[in-house]
Write a structure and sequence with these properties.
Number of strands: 2
Order of helices and strands: HHHHEEH
Radius of gyration: 32 Å
Strand content: under 5%
Number of helices: 5
Largest sheet: 2 strands, antiparallel
Number of domains: 2
Length: 148
């Protein structure tokens, strides 16, 4: 059954399948003047359900492929933790818990990086009594020269 659904979704998600669905809807619409309103309503409802199914199946396939690719990246990188691989199969509360844990860890990491960036400031070098940071631009006077 799954194979049939995936094949149908694959066909309907491509241009020939889309045109076939448009032709079927146009044929149903042409039946309205002949008093077949109930049949047309039924056919268009079924078409809407089929289109919704196609979108869901294609979304599932895309998401599964993206997760597989991301899992491959996580596994390939040596410095990453592999405990997030397969997280998409966990219960919603487990996913939310792991997400909160990762966000807290990312916040701590960002704070420590900001602290390290403040601690590692280059010390200005002094040239002729004027710091390089205060060196004048072309033709101008530096801060130290203006204060004299």
């Amino acid at each position: 059954m799954n194979r049939l659904l995936f094949r149908a979704a694959d066909f309907l998600s491509r241009p020939p399948g889309f045109y076939a669905m448009l032709a079927a809807m146009a044929a149903c619409t042409l039946l309205v003047p002949f008093g077949l309103t109930n049949a047309v309503t039924y056919a268009l409802s079924v078409a809407a359900i089929i289109i919704t199914g196609v979108v869901l199946i294609q979304g599932y396939r895309d998401t599964a492929a993206i997760h597989a690719k991301l899992d491959e990246i996580v596994i390939a990188l040596k410095q990453t933790r592999n405990d997030v691989v397969g997280l998409e199969h966990a219960e919603p509360h487990e996913i939310k818990s792991k997400l909160m844990e990762l966000e807290i860890e990312a916040g701590h990491l960002a704070a420590s990086e900001a602290l390290n960036a403040q601690e590692i400031r280059p010390v200005p070098q002094w040239v002729g009594g004027v710091g390089i940071a205060e060196a004048p631009a072309e033709g101008g006077m530096g801060t130290a020269a203006r204060q004299r």
